[in-house]
Design a protein that fits this description.
Helix content is 41%, strand content 19%. By secondary structure, the chain is α/β, with parallel strands linked by helices. The protein binds 1,4-dihydronicotinamide adenine dinucleotide.
C-alpha cells in the first residue's frame, strides 16, 4: 500500500532539492503518494500566512512529511516556520545522525555519532521583551517534562540501535537551575537504562572535544540552543551542511528535513547538493518501514559519492543537481 507523505518544497533551493529527492525516492521502489503543501515565503505570497493551517492539517493526517528549507527573516518579519511547525505538532525531538560518507572530503574519518536535540523550549520559546529601552530580556525555559522526555528518547534510541553511551551536554555550572534541571532529568532517566553508559560534558568543553576527537562520542542529548549550535558543528566534522540529514519527531508524527537552510546565494542556479535531504528521506523510509528502499538509496548514494566523478560544487565537483540526481537514479538500477 502506498504511503501518503506531505511534501513541503520550501524556499530558496528547497524546490530544487525536493524535486531531486522525490525523483530518487520514486526510483528506489518505495510507493509514496506525495501531497505538496506550501510554507514560508511561498505560502505568504499565496495565502498571507507563512505556516498555513492546510499544511499543519496535512501533516496531522499523513503523520509524515518531507520538508525543504524555509527562510526566516532575521530580526523582523514572521517568526520561524520551523519553530512554529515543531510547536504546533509537538515534534519534541530533533535527530541528526552524523557519519562520514566515503568520497565526501572531510576533516575526520570514523565519525559516527547521533545528536538528539530537545526541540520545543529553552531560549527557542521565543519569550522576549524590552524591559526598558535598551534592555531586552529573553527567557530560557527548561521543564522537567520536556527534559525527561528528550532524555528518554535518547536512551531509547541508544538501546534500539545498539549504541553504547549517551552524553548529556549542559552549562549547569553557570545556569545551575535551568541546565541543572535538564541534567537531573537526564540522570534520573539514565538510571532506568543500566545497559547504556551515561556521562556529561559542559557545552564549551564538549565543542573542544568534538573538534579534537569526535569518535569518542556516541549519542549526545542537548537542550535546544546548544543542540542547534553543536549539530552544525558536527555537520562540519563530516563535510558540511550538504551531507547531513535530520528528523523532527513527536509521539506519532515525523517531519524529515535537511539541516541546511534555503541557501539564497545559490537558489535557482541548479547547483544545490540534494544529499542532505536524501539522507533525511532515507530516515523517513526507515520510519515508514521501507527498509529495502532505504538500503537501495543508501547503496546508490554511497557508490556515486565514492566513485567521485559526479560531484556537486560544494563537494569540489562541477555537477548540477540534476546530473547528480540522474547518477544516483542510474546507480539504483
Ligand atoms: P544555509 O544553510 O542556507 O547556507 C549556508 C551556506 O551553505 C551557503 O553558502 C549555502 O550556499 C551553502 N549550502 C547550504 N545548503 C546547501 C546545499 N544543499 N548544497 C550546496 N550548498 C549549500 O544557511 P543560511 O544562509 O544561514 O540561511 C539561509 C536561510 O535558511 C535563512 O532564512 C534561515 O533562516 C533558513 N534556514 C532554514 C532552515 C530550515 O528550514 N530547516 C535551517 C537553517 C536555515
Amino acid at each position: 500500500m502506498a504511503h501518503t507523505v506531505t511534501l513541503v518544497p520550501g524556499d530558496g533551493i528547497g524546490p530544487e532539492v525536493t524535486d531531486a529527492v522525490v525523483r530518487m525516492v520514486n526510483a528506489s521502489g518505495a510507493s509514496i503518494d506525495w501531497e505538496p503543501q506550501l510554507a514560508g515565503v511561498a505560502a505568504v505570497e499565496k495565502t498571507g500566512k507563512p505556516l498555513p493551517n492546510d499544511l499543519i492539517e496535512s501533516i496531522r493526517r499523513n503523520k509524515v512529511a518531507l520538508k525543504g528549507p524555509v527562510a526566516t527573516p532575521i530580526g523582523e518579519g514572521f517568526t520561524s516556520v520551523n519553530v512554529g511547525l515543531r510547536k504546533a505538532l509537538d515534534l519534541y525531538a530533533n535527530l541528526r545522525p552524523v557519519w562520514n560518507l566515503d568520497g565526501v572530503p572531510s576533516r575526520f574519518q570514523g565519525v559516527d555519532l547521533v545528536i538528539v536535540r530537545e526541540n520545543t523550549e529553552d531560549l527557542y520559546a521565543g519569550l522576549e521583551h524590552e524591559v526598558v529601552p535598551g534592555v531586552v530580556e529573553s527567557l530560557k525555559i527548561i521543564t522537567e517534562r520536556a527534559s525527561t522526555r528528550i532524555a528518554r528518547f535518547a536512551f531509547d534510541y541508544a538501546r534500539r540501535h545498539g549504541r553504547k553511551k549517551v552524553t548529556a551536554i549542559h552549562k549547569a555550572n553557570i545556569m545551575k537551575l535551568g541546565d541543572g534541571l535538564f541534567l537531573a532529568c537526564a540522570r534520573a532517566v539514565a538510571r532506568e537504562y543500566p545497559d547504556v553508559a551515561y556521562d556529561e560534558k559542559i557545552v564549551d568543553a564538549a565543542c573542544m572535544h568534538l573538534v579534537m576527537n569526535p569518535s569518542q562520542f556516541d549519542v549526545l542529548v542537548l537542550p535546544n540552543l546548544y543542540g542547534d549550535i553543536v549539530s552544525d558543528l558536527c555537520a562540519g566534522l563530516v563535510g558540511g551542511l550538504g551531507v547531513v540529514g535530520s528528523a523532527n519527531l513527536g509521539e506519532n508524527i515525523g517531519v524529515f528535513e535537511a539541516v541546511h537552510g534555503s541557501a539564497p546565494d545559490i537558489a535557482g542556479k541548479g547547483v544545490a547538493n540534494p544529499t542532505a535531504l536524501l539522507l533525511s528521506a532515507v530516515l523517513m523510509l526507515r520510519h515508514l518501514d521501507e527498509g529495502a528502499a532505504a538500503d537501495r538509496l543508501m547503496a546508490a548514494l554511497r557508490s556515486v559519492l565514492k566513485d567521485g566523478s559526479v560531484r556537486t560544487r560544494d563537494l569540489g565537483g562541477s555537477a548540477s543537481t540534476s546530473t547528480f540526481t540522474d547518477a544516483v537514479c542510474r546507480a539504483i538500477g
